Amino acid sequence: MEEKLKKCPCCGSDVMIIIEDDIANFGTDKWYSCSNDKCIFHGINLFPEDWQSRPIEDSLQKKLDIAMKAFDDILEFKRTGYFGLNFDVWQIIKKAMVEIEEIK
User: Domain check: are 48 and 60 in the same one?
Assistant: First the structure.
């Protein structure tokens, strides 16, 4: 399964895939660029692995996913009526905070 292409880190536009035949080396080069001609990333050709690499964004998304899971778990306690024990809620929060701290 192919990884979903990320949007432009600058403007959020779709990626433009550029394929060039390299006659000298008899290969094909594949580049990614921003499709928005007003963006500073338009016309800057990046290797696919460079376009897809967003360490800060990926780290923040992982942290957000953990926080949202904890929030959903707490809401589930409330929905089921099992909201009397604050200890359980604090355990969920504490577990999420530990997981978030472990992400670099």
Answer: no
CA 20 from centre of chain? 28
CB atoms within 10 A of CB 32: 22
> Distance between CA atoms of 5 and 52, rounded to whole angstroms?
7
On whether both 42 and 21 belong to a single domain, the answer is yes
| 37 belongs to a structural domain | yes
Q: What is the DSSP string of 17-28?
A: EEEEEETTTTEE
What pLDDT digit, counting tens, does each position of 12-70 carry? 999 998 887 666 666 667 889 999 999 999 989 898 888 888 888 889 999 999 999 99
Cα distance between residue 36 and residue 99, in whole Å: 37
* Residue 49 CA from chain centroid, whole number: 14
CA distance linking residue 103 with residue 34, whole number of Å: 29
Domain that holds residue 23: 15-52
Tell me whether residue 10 is in a domain: no
Q: Is the pTM here over 0.70, yes or no? A: no
